[in-house]
Amino acid sequence: MPENSSSPSIAEACAILRAGGLLAIPTETVYGLAADARNPDAIAKIFALKQRPKSHPLIVHIADAGQLPDWAVEIPDTAYRLAAAFWPGPLTLILSKHPDVPDAVTGGQATIGLRCPDSPLTQALLRAFGGGLAAPSANRFGRLSPTSAGHVRDEFGEQSPRILDGGECGIGIESTIVDLTSNPPRILREGSIRHAQLQVFLPDIQSGQATTSPRVSGSLDAHYAPRTAMRRRTRAELGAETVRGSVVLALKSLPDGADGIALPDSADEYARGLYSALRQLDARNAAEILIEQTPEGPEWLAVNDRIARALAGAGISP
Ligand code: TXA
Ligand code: MG
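Above: the input record for the complex with magnesium ion. Below: its predicted structure, written as tokens.
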């Protein structure tokens, strides 16, 4: 393997970031495309490689809650209580941005997204680096988030940055985003940390967007999408339908005669495998992907949200 396609050491990774370069990093949710959050030139490289609109803000990843005051002001106590309960982990807090944070990071907004990822390698990197890492998911705009180093390489090909390889992501879908600057506080993006868990700390927390804000790119209807057209089908429909030319993403087991992948029927395990399964099915170049209807219920909210966006964006170029 050529030298620069292997996983860098923490020292090498730090040197790349200090020099203003890009580095793909593992997290427990999905892989991130990281750059020094204090360096506007480095941030510009993220937007260029992702082909992401410049007004879409990035999440800044920090080593622990002690660094919150470096990035945010007017930090409410609940931010520290949520951090104590859920960090390191898949929760992003939206706070008022510190005036020193480059505008490029926040798309010119007065708020900033902050999160402390739960990955031993990325924790080691953040501690060695000392600062914050701006990192969106390491995929091209509108496409499926990567949950392994191989996915990042497939996504960017020749243009791929070095990848700190932490293996497969344990959670598999992006972090829950909670806006603490709105009153009442609001979940902007569903994730594996659920409404009921947050309600313990924020009794009046609301789910869903107050308005459809394009500033949260994960809130665009079409997002997290494969290139192949996709349709949702009930189990009964999958059984009856001629699935010739199609591949199936089934729940628990593949229907007789169907070609595709079955994911477990627990929401967390389904989430872990979802993007990888969609990537594999997308690579089959089938006429369409038929996705089996998943259960309703609070534990399926985040998964169903990602499926709805994949359905909206599948088969169209962003
Ligand atoms: O799990 C995750 O959050 C992953 C890993 C890499 O940490 N990151 C991720 O980043 O999903 P990205 O950029 O793909 O999605 C972050 C979302 C975007 O929809 C962005 O608009 C929103 O967070 N966001 C970031 N800062 C924000 C802010 N100040 N106000 C509102 N939304 C914000
Ligand atoms: Mg993303």
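Notes for the reader.
The mean pLDDT is 93.
Residues 196 and 298 are 9 Å apart (CA to CA).
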